[in-house]
TrEMBL record:
This is NAD(P)/FAD-dependent oxidoreductase. Coiled coil: none annotated. Belongs to the class-I pyridine nucleotide-disulfide oxidoreductase family. It comes from Microbacterium wangchenii. Its cofactor is FAD. Residues 357-463 form the Pyridine nucleotide-disulphide oxidoreductase dimerisation domain. Pfam families: Pyr_redox_2, Pyr_redox_dim. It comes from the Bacteria. Keywords: FAD, Flavoprotein, NAD. InterPro entries: Class-I_Pyr_Nuc-Dis_Oxidored (IPR050151), FAD/NAD-bd_sf (IPR036188), FAD/NAD-binding_dom (IPR023753), FAD/NAD-linked_Rdtase_dimer_sf (IPR016156), Pyr_nuc-diS_OxRdtase (IPR001100), Pyr_nucl-diS_OxRdtase_dimer (IPR004099). Residues 6-318 form the FAD/NAD(P)-binding domain.
Length: 477
């Protein structure tokens, strides 16, 4: 059977693959998506969307409980079955019909099955029933296969069939008890969700919580998890695990204690989904993250691109979709012989991956950060000044809640007079973050930020407090 030919073949129809194909088609090219599971990927069905749905109801309840007058109206507790049903609606009951309709309308072809490289510009797709479709690309193959949960090599751990993020986000009931291994984003979000369901949660974090963030972020999240009833243990990990039949899992911990729990969630990071991708047919190492340049081209090739989690630049949907726009557009530009804008901040490069990656962790309080932490900025050799501000001191915070707890930090590059990092920790700070992203990407000088006046009384007045704390030269003259 002869191979079907397209300008661009995209392997993996998660949020990133969908966007690469869309941009390529908008650039006048033909594109095909290859998908082994559900169109929409991990993000739509087992990650961003279901996890946020599991968190939102508890956050809404606690927000109302923090305001006198509203709290008196609350007489019940979280309805866990209703939360899970809302999550089911959010993931369309794990049915991808609506996304397939979008792909079709966007003018993108779809081939279902497992895709693997079969030499330069060639992809072989094997469907569940064993049927094989061979594809050949005129211009580019783009790998957007994402990542999967990493299971550390701990004796007995695999045998007890622990939950990963997939089982935690797709659960149909809340277990009575849950141990969570890890202190990162998945661990803290799922600890928040399950603790609010009434599950007895134990977090086992070998270092602190959210150690990639400013130190106060993990401290505030740990305190609030404890308020929710979770047992947060740091400096400890699982040494071995065992489960007999249907009985609880028995965990031996590194501090010599034991823990018996109904379920164990392993949230210790990700591995690339490249193990069975045929990388060896093009001289690359199976199972490795794909190293790309700023146009998302895999180094050492002129036809293979990788975008999203699989290139390990920033494991976030929005950042992967940003890369996808650059990749789809640069493939079209190169195919059409149009100029390539690959200078920093050009249309065809993912410069923000290095300078301004925004991330919100939807714990309670939320952690919203962009750019460098103070420690990272210092390590990068930037002459910094750190501005700290207690978010509860702004008028908007006291209006928002009767017990507002939050903290904010801005990191200034003293030589350039611009911000290089901002972190907000507090209730509902997620929506504040984009202001900081714009300030960093736009390299807005601090003296100009004085003219960006935040509305009174909103939490965004923290921007004015940052500036007042930093000081204004003209005040002393
Ligand atoms: C619990 C959890 C919560 C998260 N929450 C957020 C959040 O709130 N916000 C955020 O920005 N990020 C979040 N993330 C991260 C986010 O899910 C990922 O960054 C995002 O899904 C990456 O998109 P992607 O398209 O690169 O990969 P994926 O979404 O993983 O999609 C890859 C697709 O490729 C397919 N595929 C893989 N191999 C093959 C193959 N060989 N052939 C054919 N198809 C293949 C897969 O089936 C899948 O559909 C979360 C992650 C987790 C685990
Ligand atoms: N809201 C969001 O944007 C969101 C939500 C969930 C996940 N994500 C993304 O998904 C990715 C994966 O999240 P994650 O939480 O799995 O990874 P992570 O890298 O955030 O955290 C991993 C945690 O596991 C610990 N760990 C690693 N190996 C271990 C071991 N062998 N034993 C014990 N502990 C170990 C680390 O110390 C760390 O605390 C992240 O990069 C994150 O950005 C984003």
């Amino acid at each position: 059977m002869s191979a079907r030919e397209y300008d661009v073949i995209v392997v993996g129809a998660g949020p990133v693959g969908e966007n690469v194909a869309d941009r390529a088609v908008q650039g006048g090219l033909s594109a095909v998506l290859v998908e082994a599971e559900l169109v929409g990927g991990e993000c739509s069905y087992w990650a961003c969307m279901p996890s946020k749905a599991l968190l939102r109801s508890g956050a809404a309840l606690r927000a109302a409980q923090a305001v006198d007058g509203a709290k008196q109206a609350i007489t019940g507790t979280l309805d866990v079955a209703a939360v899970l049903a809302r999550r089911d609606r959010m993931v369309h009951d794990w049915n991808d019909d609506s996304q397939v309709t979008w792909v079709d309308k966007a003018g993108i072809d779809l081939v279902r099955g497992h895709g693997a490289l079969a030499g330069e510009k060639r992809v072989r797709v094997t469907a569940d029933d064993g049927a094989v479709t061979d594809l050949v690309a005129r211009h580019a193959v783009v790998v957007c296969t994402g990542s999967a949960a990493l299971l550390p090599d701990i004796p007995g751990l695999r045998a007890i069939q622990p939950w990963t993020s997939r089982e935690a986000t797709a659960a149909q009931t809340a277990p009575e008890s849950l141990a969570i291994l890890g202190g990162g984003v998945v661990a803290t979000e799922m600890a928040t969700a399950y603790a609010s369901f009434g599950t007895r949660v134990t977090v086992l974090a070998r270092s602190g919580l959210l150690t990639n963030e400013e130190p106060f972020a993990g401290e505030l999240v740990a305190a609030s998890l404890r308020d929710l009833g979770a047992d947060v243990r740091t400096g400890v990990t699982i040494s071995s695990a065992r489960r007999d039949g249907e009985s609880p899992a028995r965990l031996e911990l590194s501090d010599g204690t034991t823990l018996e729990v109904e379920e164990v969630l392993v949230a210790t990071g990700r591995v690339p989904r490249t193990g069975d991708l045929g990388l060896e047919t093009v001289g690359l190492e199976p199972g490795s993250w794909l190293d790309v340049d700023d146009t998302l081209l895999v180094r050492g090739t002129d036809w293979l691109y990788a975008a999203g989690d699989v290139n390990h630049r920033a494991l976030l949907t929005h950042q992967g979709k940003y890369q996808a726009r650059a990749a789809g557009d640069v493939i079209a530009a190169r195919a059409n012989g149009a100029p390539v804008q690959d200078a920093p901040w050009g249309a065809h490069v993912a410069t923000a991956d290095h300078a301004a990656v925004p991330q919100v962790t939807f714990t309670d309080p939320e952690v919203a950060s962009v750019g460098l932490t103070a420690a990272r900025a210092e390590k990068a050799g930037i002459r910094t000044r750190v501005i700290d501000y207690d978010l509860s001191w702004v008028a908007g915070a006291s209006e928002w809640s009767d017990d507002y707890r939050g903290q904010a930090r801005a990191v200034v590059d003293e030589d350039r007079g611009v911000l290089v990092g901002v972190t907000f920790v507090g209730p509902s700070v997620a929506e504040l973050l984009h202001s900081a992203t714009i300030a960093i990407v736009g390299e807005v000088p601090l003296h100009r930020l004085w003219h960006a006046v935040p509305s009174y009384p909103t939490v965004s007045e923290v921007w004015l407090r940052f500036l007042e704390t930093y000081g204004r030269d003209s005040a002393s003259h």
